[in-house]
Amino acid sequence: MAGSVEVEEILGHSNRKPELLTEDFDPTAVVSEPLPALVVEDGQSSNVVSREEAEEEKKKKSIEIVLGRNVHTTCLAVTEPDANDEFTGDKEAYMASVLARYRRTLIDRTKHHLGYPYNLDFDYGALGQLQRFSINNLGDPFIESNYGVHSRQFEVGVLDWFARLWELEKNEYWGYITNCGTEGNLHGILVGREVFPDGILYASRESHYSVFKAARMYRMECVKVDTLVSGEIDCVDFKAKLLSNKGKPAIINVNIGTTVKGAVDDLDLVIQTLEESGFTRDRFYIHCDGALFGLMMPFVKKAPKVTFKKPIGSVSVSGHKFVGCPMPCGVQITRMEHINVLSRNVEYLASRDATIMGSRNGHAPIFLWYTLNRKGYKGFQKEVQKCLRNAHYLKGRLRDAGISAMLNELSSTVVFERPLDDDFVRRWQLACEGNIAHVVVMPNVTIEKLDDFLNELIEKRPSWFKDGNGQPPCLAEDVGIENCACSLHK
After folding, report:
1. How do residues 220-276 score in pLDDT, each as one tens digit?
2. Cβ atoms within 10 Å of 295's Cβ, excluding its own
3. What is the structure's pLDDT at 43?
């Protein structure tokens, strides 16, 4: 019966009609998540689209990559209610049982979440009263449409806050609340492409994959720039590639925190390199991808400023990362002078539209507005300090345990030796690339949580290298000699 079947059946394809729950049903059970089989990648990636990338892939060693599980094997089937369900309530009881188990799973997975940059420490209970409304901010956030159930007044308030943070006057900026950080990058690069239709997109190899997705979507010529060991853009290589393409304008993606290593590109040096290469300010456009650290850096003492007082064209951040939000969202800000190339009147909306998606989640601006008002600048400053302090604690304990580890200045992303146990990786939801993994220390990551992770890692690690399985790898190329704890460099 519905209440006594195993978890696998509840989360699988079951066409059996739901029945009443039995007395032995446990709503606190945690849904199991079986690991998929290993897939060996030989370096011949089907996604390689250029000779340069193909050569790069060939240099890589074969890696065992654990792909995510096929959700079709565990998806929840949608079934028709019985004719008499209105009287029996069997379907309602079945759905309640599934949701109870799912909630317990979420609690467990949140408890062991470390590898992705999401702040899970938030409470929006006061906003529950708004969930029954279909709030849609379709079109331009600054011009109302005929659809009256919107939250533009909250959205523009949030945009004004970010414009002040990045030093751009109200009458000089345009922006909107996006559905995620990727949309912010897609929009920023699109504005750059519209300003310079024949421009070349430059991005470091450690830029977020959405930057290269944008290049494919917009059919832009894209040049990948080498990086330093830290993950920061190599401006020597950047200059060489600019000089070889002097005839075309430059559209540059600057990372305010790279995806894997949390490296911050030197914006001032990027601008200096452009000018030294003969690119005047009317021949380049800079988009700053600040998905996570774009909102942290303003609260770090002595950190370089991301500001529109410098010749940048746009900045985007994620709202569900450092701020913390139950749904993905983000903020994109650009200069008013640039947006006219995109904006169009839409009679159907009785508004204008220069966004990517058109219909936009009207709840997200309210969540962001609520948090910005509750925490304010001082609240965010305290949380940034806590994250940086805890990140240094994690790095210190890893090095004390003889594990290679790196922490970039201005970052809360701790990079370390990739665990060889895929169950461990999945349990702690670590993000891995090659021989390294990382933990992103967010406001919800406490010292106690880090201790639980470290104690388990230190306990299990020796077993990964026994019985002739070799020694921990040298990570000097990934994290630098000074951060490598292999037998050669420790």
Report:
1. 999 999 999 999 999 999 999 999 999 999 999 999 999 999 999 999 999 999 999
2. 23
3. 37
Least confident of 133-137, 331-335, 390-394, 484-488: 484-488
Predicted pLDDT of residue 88: 80
Q: Of the residues 204, 207, 277, 411, which is catalytic?
A: 411
Give me the pLDDT at residue 358, please. 83
In the annotation, is 411 catalytic? Answer: yes
Quote the pLDDT of residue 56.
Answer: 53
This prediction has a pTM of 0.85
Tens of pLDDT, residues 379-419: 999 999 999 999 999 999 999 999 999 999 889 999 999 99
Q: Tell me: pLDDT of 41 over 90.
A: no
